[in-house]
Amino acid sequence: MPLPDHTTTSIAHPARQAALEWLLNRINYERTSWIPYQERQLKLDRMRQLLTRLGQPEASLKIIHVAGTKGKGSTSAMISAMLTAAGYRTGFFSSPHLEQIEERFAVDGQPCSADEFVTLVDRVRSEVLAMDTEAAAEGDPAGGPTYFEITTAIALLHFVERQADAAVLEVGLGGRLDSTNVCLPVVSVITSISFDHMRQLGNTLSAIAREKAGIIKPGVPVISGVTADEPRAVVATIAREHGCRILQLGRDFQFHYHGARSFANGAAENAAAESASFDFRNNLAGQELALDHLELAMRGPHQAANAAVALAAVSELRHQGWCISTEAMRQGLALAKMPGRVEIIPGNPTIVLDTAHNPASARALIESLAELPPASRRTLIVSISHDKDVPAVVRELAHPFERIIVTKYQENPRAVSAEKLLELFRAAFASASERSPSAEDVSRATQPHPLPARAPELILCPTPVEALQHAMQTSREGELVCITGSFFLAAELRPLVLSVTAW
User: What is the arrangement of strands in the sheet containing 403-406, beginning at the earlier edge strand?
Assistant: First the structure.
């Protein structure tokens, strides 16, 4: 049986539900406990064959291809928003979605309609079934196209049919073997590289970098937001081997983050209305650009780094002859948002929804929370996938909360059990209490939201709904509730959070 999609649209649209059920019955590595990343399962030849059967929609699109361990979704959204502000009709393929599958296929920030989705699925279905038959006849154990390959093809078809001037494609996993890697882009972007998906991509930053840099194509300019020395060198080497010009963060372009504006009365409920700002410099000959006090709809130092990479990519497009004004750049960054990226939902309590799911993104979330005004109490609701570095994510999220509610998301088999997660948090605080304060602890103690004086209250709620209900029913005046640890947890709780006033 297919897993449910987070939407009520399917109830009122039976054709959409039928199309969705067919798609969800395909091999879907987003919803399995084991994610392969080998040529045997992920065949770019299979993706190329599907696109050839569909008329090669990718060949007519000007594509910006974006990979990275973290930040690739936000960076892609920022590039898309700047291009839209400049007057270019822009497609944006993203994954995973939080509530509706149509979110993956957006043009100028608007997801495709349910009717368009049904038509697109009908377009690809016959070709997919023909490929299934061929794979079976040849004894190919990998079978026909997967869920992600089909959604990639749907996105490209949609962008062509909507006559998009540009298409921003976010890599799903890795880069080299990702189904989006059949495109020939006008610019390749790599946002950052840190530890994630080690079983698939490798146990060193160099190995992960090689997989991410697999999107680099001969002669296509590369924008790199990679700052750690080891993976940075790998990306630069591969770019040179492919004869690519490369623009690197810290060498060719820089940013300075100013943070969020001060709050008028220090109230947490005003946090959603505040924006952050940063300065950007591109000093590459022929692309010089200086922009000060750029407003960011998505807050946090990590989002300023993502925005700098997005600006460098747009600067490269301007160098190629695209007409993109600095005003369009400003407007796009001020408007670009993605759900679940330090998404502040005002109320009492204030709720922060985030999809941080690896140590680097968890650390970035904590830095962003430090910008928010003081709360009477800070509560964490958390669930994490077992294919992540769970102990490391736990260590990052173990502060600065006075209350931690562990749970297990329900609609995917990849979740760590709530019981195991509770033990990992207990172990993290026990370990911290037994050792001398580290330099990191001392640094954190000087931040606006230091480590709690004692270990937080740990609570186990079997399901996310129960966790949210408990947090809401026991909240204090002026409390902040942060929900994080996984895309899947955010997907389950976001619709409820947005309707929380009805409780």
Answer: 343-345, 350-353, 480-484, 378-382, 403-406, 457-460
Q: What is the C-alpha end-to-end distance of the chain, expressed in Å?
A: 31
- d(CA 141, CA 462) in angstroms, rounded, equals 37
CA distance 306 to 249: 10
**Identity at 47, one-letter amino acid code:** M
| 453 in the same domain as 374 | yes
Going by C-alpha positions, the residue among 275, 299, 259, 265 that lies closest to residue 447 is 259
Number of domains comprising the chain: 2
Summarised one tens digit per residue, pLDDT across range 478-487 is 999 999 999 9
Q: Does residue 2 fall inside a structural domain?
A: no
Query: 487-498 vs 464-473: helix axis angle to the nearest 10?
Result: 50
pLDDT digit string (tens) for 69-88? 889 999 999 999 999 999 99
Across-strand partners of 66? 170, 189
Residue 112 is classified by DSSP as P
Residues 99 and 202 reside in one and the same domain: yes
Q: Is residue 92 part of a domain?
A: yes
Q: Are 179 and 93 in contact (CB under 8 A)?
A: no
Q: Are strands 253-260 and 276-282 parallel, antiparallel or unpaired?
A: antiparallel
Co-location of 331 and 349 in the same domain: no
Residues in the chain predicted with pLDDT less than 70, given as ranges, are 1-11, 29-43, 195-203, 261-274, 432-454, 501-503
> What domain range is 238 assigned to?
12-267+274-335
CA distance 89 to 140: 40
Answer yes or no: do 258 and 366 share one domain.
no
Contact 329, 88 (CB under 8 A): no
Residues 232 and 113 in one domain: yes
pTM score of the predicted model: 0.89
| Residue 7 domain-assigned (yes or no) | no
Strands (E), 239-396: 246-248, 253-260, 276-282, 289-296, 343-345, 350-353, 378-382
CB 246: neighbour CB atoms within 10 A? Answer: 20
Query: Do 329 and 402 belong together in one domain?
Result: no
